[in-house]
Structure to design on (115 residues):
């Protein structure tokens, strides 16, 4: 499988090439179900998630370490989707983020290669 312009390509069942992007989402753990609902709404079927991840925001976020002093945790998702699904996904995630800005939801879209 090759790469063109930093975008992953894969073959579908008819052997036509499609462009894809990797989308990484780091979020407050309680957003987990809502993120899966967004995937369902947008017909994003394939993803991997980590239920309990630790971290803190780079600017103003409080630590999410799962400890006595900092008891909350984050979750993380990784999905590889067609280019045309990226913008709708980012829009839905932004709406979710606005419901609890202090808790944090960050999304990163990356070029990727599949071999």
């Amino acid at each position: 499988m090759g790469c063109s312009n930093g975008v992953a390509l894969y073959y579908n069942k008819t052997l036509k090439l499609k462009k894809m992007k990797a989308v990484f989402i780091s979020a407050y753990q309680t957003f987990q179900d809502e993120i899966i609902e967004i995937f369902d709404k947008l017909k994003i079927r394939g993803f991997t998630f980590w239920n309990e991840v630790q971290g803190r925001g780079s600017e103003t976020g409080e630590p999410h370490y799962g400890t006595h002093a900092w008891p909350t945790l984050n979750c993380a998702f990784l999905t590889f989707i067609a280019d045309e699904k990226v913008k709708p996904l980012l829009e839905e995630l932004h709406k979710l983020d606005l419901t609890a800005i202090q808790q944090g939801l960050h999304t990163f879209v990356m070029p990727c290669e599949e071999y």
Remarks:
- Strands lie at 3-4, 7-11, 17-28, 48-53, 74-82, 105-110.
